[in-house]
Design goal:
Layout lengths: L2 E9 L2 E9 L6 E8 L1 H7 L3 E7 L2 E2 H11 L11 E4 L2 E2 L5 E2 L5 E4 L6
Parallel strand pairs: 3-9
Antiparallel strand pairs: 1-2, 3-4, 5-8, 6-7, 6-9
Length: 110
């Protein structure tokens, strides 16, 4: 839901009316730059991607949006590791504007 703001300016016996809308906080979007590593970088074909998404943004929601925009990683999106500000992040962690976000493919070894 948007809030409508109406203003009136009076100047030299004239009145100017104007209005604008302020988006509800849940409709505010932010751009997140995501750095990709290893096979994720290869599948998407880029080292970095920019995702525009409405706030608040959890790691889980970001992964879902990236999977929708880049279906070539959809099958492995449940196992992707995400770091926020150079620390591995839980799926429910909220990402703030300006956070450094990176994605790593699942790692196995033996």
């Amino acid at each position: 839901m948007n809030n409508l703001v109406i203003n009136r300016i009076k100047r030299n016996n004239s009145t100017i009316n104007f209005s604008y809308q302020i988006p509800h906080s849940s409709e505010v979007s932010m751009k997140i730059e995501v750095t990709l590593f290893a096979t994720l970088k290869e599948r998407i074909g880029k080292r970095q991607i920019n995702i525009e998404i409405s706030e608040p943004v959890s790691v889980s929601r970001l992964l879902s949006e990236i999977s929708n925009q880049y279906p070539q990683i959809k099958n492995s999106s449940g196992n992707i590791l995400v770091s926020v500000n150079q620390e591995f992040a839980a799926k429910d962690q909220i990402i703030a504007l300006g956070d450094e976000v990176a994605m790593f493919p699942p790692v196995s070894g033996g």
